User: Fold these one by one.
Assistant:
Number 1:
Amino acid sequence: MTETPVLAARGLVKRYGRVTAMDGADFELLPGEILAVVGDNGAGKSTLIKALSGAVIPDGGQILVDGEPVRFHGPLDARRHGIETVYQTLALADAQDIAANLFLGRERRRGGLLGRVFRLLDSRGMRAEAERVLDELGIGIRSMQQPVETLSGGQRQAVAVARAAAFGTRVVIMDEPTAALGVAESAKVLDLIRRIRDRGLPVVLISHNMPQVFDIADRIHVHRLGRRVAVASPRTHTMNEVVGLLTGALRMAEDGTVEEARPTVPAGTPE
Amino acid sequence: MTTAAERKPSVGEFILRTRAVGPALALVVAVALFSLTTRTFLNADNLSLVVQQSLVVGTLALGQTLVILTNGIDLANASIAVLATLIMAKMALGGGSAPVALVFGIVVAVAIGAISGGVVTGLRLPPFIVTLGMFTIVTAAARIYASGQSYPVSDPLLGWLGNRQYLFGRIEVTYGMGLALAMFLVAWYALTKTAWGRHVYAVGNDPEAARLSGIHVRRTVLSVYVVAGLVYGVAAWQALGRVPNADPNAYQLGNLDSITAVVLGGTSLFGGRGSVLGTLVGALIVAVLRSGLTQAGIDSLYQDVATGILVIVAVAVDRFARGRQA
């Protein structure tokens, strides 16, 4: 491989008491790609993602940003490295408007005395910027002063994604962004993800929805029992193969071919 | 259509968002009603008195609003203010300098607010329980400190807020009214025009979302209790301006009255929604109701019944509005 991964992890370990959530997990996100992370419930996907976004501090292993080892002590550290996360809960303040949510926790102040002494916010500037960002991503919401709670599920998701896209300079991580959405709204969010990728920002997408993963991902990271067991491609592998990999029925050989993991039936028995 | 025109919210949106509109309408209706039904309500003297009567509870309610916006509640606010009045009065009576007495009383109020906030955020205990305990402690402390007596205040500085002037030669305006108005405006500015204010709302709305958005949740909540303590300290000064006598048994229901004003002003007890301007209106509604019902010759116990019904209606309206929006 010639490209340096934007975000990588080597041998991550995380234990909760006697439960091992990550057991030497590796991870690699390449520039400009959409990487899907798939795995069964309890495979340790979300622990991996939380470690990458700074929400969980691993017990062992290494995280690398652009090839440089880093240590995240909280979500803010990851953000400072340009890594933005769209949480499954969206982390939006429902009663506040779209512009306020987009800039929540990093509000901009007016210049000069008004900003420095009177801490006056640049509300108009933030509204204009919010409008620009949403417009650029093709999100058709007109009023930036609409409270988030008045939006539909898909629009709320779009606001959260726009926030990540607006501030993420290296990576956008999305945890199940379409889980709560209907078909039409899911399609819009997937479009949005593609547009972010096309702007050059790599995306990590955690998803349960296999057809969706095959529709949008450039590569597929398969997680099982706390570690990466395979990296598949939607172009060279089938959906059944990926499902087989994540349940453990199949395994991936060194050369990338997929084979039966442990033949449970005696050899020679017809299928 | 210009984009500026598109950004303008509709009238309906505006009313929904500006939670003070409903309470303001209620205030206007109440004033109109009492003006029509009684001969004595609508005159400059009575209206001025109504405002003066709402100053102490209104100021307590300002601090209460900040705490309630973070999804907390402060049952200790009036007892903190009462303790502060006693400190101010006793220190000044003992020959101390009045400015020092005033500042020290306010500092104690800030310190107690900081302790409440510190316990709420540090030990992650429910604000209701923490401030209930604080209410009991501070009330007892005030009585011990006062040794069962009340203390008259003759110092001009401590009673300064009671000074009055006449606008247009007939409308009586006290300095306390000016200070209260200024404090409400400053609080409104801080809540709506600064990042701190947005964080206060966000923390009350959804603390986990606020945390994930990079807001220092505990620091924000702690700062609110400290600022509230400062406001209660000023409420003590307002109290001495109204009645130049520090009494350990005064404002026993001040905590509940302040909550009433906050709720009538349209601020949600569930946190994250509301405004201090609403609280200003809420405090005036209570005072108008009391005054008007008195002029109408209705017994004060029935006035309590009326206020109680209003509170329940206000919370029900909030609940209904929330349910529809969620």
Number 2:
Amino acid sequence: MGHRTALYQSHIDAGGKMVDFGGWDMPINYGSQIEEHHQVRRHAGLFDVSHMTVVDVTGADARQYLRRLLANDVARLDDKPGKALYSAMLNEAGGVIDDLIVYHLQGWYRVIVNCATRDKDLAWMSQQASGLDVHINERTELSMMAVQGPKALEIVKQCVSAGRAELIDQLSVFTGKDEGGWFFARTGYTGEDGLEILLPEADAPSVWQALIDAGVVPCGLGARDTLRLEAGMNLYGHEMDDATSPLAANMGWTIAWEPTERDFIGRGALEAQRREGASDTLVGLVLTGRGVLRAGQSVRVPGSERTGVITSGTFSPTLGYSIAMARVPAGASGEASVDVRGKALAVSIVKPNFVRHGQALV
Amino acid sequence: MSDIRNELKYLPSHEWARVEEDGTVTIGITDHAQESLGDVVYVETPELGATVNAGEEAGVVESVKAASDIYSPISGEVIAVNESLEDAPEQVNESPYDDGWFYKVKPSDLSELEDALDAAGYQAAIEADE
């Protein structure tokens, strides 16, 4: 038996098909993954993401500490309480230890990292805090749910107190706010508008049920994966890992090179890579014919002897054909071919961004 | 609890075979298989007129989650394929033993099915997997 979230029984009651996910018993779907996916694009879906790791960083040196720990610069959040930032946390060689979201709250920071990387992340974060006035406090007592889709905000507001509904009205995109032990953030992992909500475990099942009663559809980790892939969002362990540079994972935009004197961990290695020019790049692939692209399949691109590899692939429920993200030799464009069980299937190389706000981008 | 039908023969790899009144054999995948695969998005059946061999690959079924080979429970000539799966692969999920059939064979040796599992044997095979 794996770890169970406070919503485990809610999943069983809703007919969730439970699977092991990074040591947690989580729902992969509640019937049809494709139907859940469509609900998020067209209406609103509800995800239990309590397996994610929430870490509060406090202390007089918190800002200085995060400016060294992260490739993006939390100084961009100064004077913007509530604002969030997406960042890589790099090792000295410039590999990605994890990707995360950091929120700037009143004088402290809330960091949300992945579940499968929890142990190494916490060990690394503690090690880097040595000698600083920094406190790292994991919030295991909180549940986390994501409500995503064009109707998400409207429905959540109906299910919470008037004060919290007002707070949601004031939340601009990519900001978060804490309130009475709860935390609302207008963030997500689907390419749709929506909220991520942290709340005490004891409150989670009744809120979950209220949202379902208000018409939000429970969605499993299967739909979460097809949604994020359509939205061109990376998944740790697929698009990047300890041995992958963020420059080869379409994460160049998350690296704050300025100010040049900010010495974040991994900076030296990344600057060397930037001088030499990246050897690999992350692209999107589209297969309009029959078949489904899968992680691990090899990609042949024009003008290169070296092959690339699919990092994530799936059938796209919104588009009705298969899409993938692939790491290929830099500069590749146009048509490519993928080895699908011995057959070379023709695919088009596109930007790794397929669907946003319900609209096809390819 | 998945649906296992008494009148069918099964492979441990989750294909079913039904001997029709005219002596032909219809092949598909089981309710348990469709449930483990999740939403089916493509089915690659053998070609009409092709010869399939018992225990060998005869096609592929792809779900959102994974690709899975289809093994033929019996040898023979393929005399029909379920073309409606091209536009409506979800029939495999909704009706695995009826509308979601894959292909039909004129068997070269019907006794090959004696080696296949009956309903109780297949039930036991699923339970051993879990």
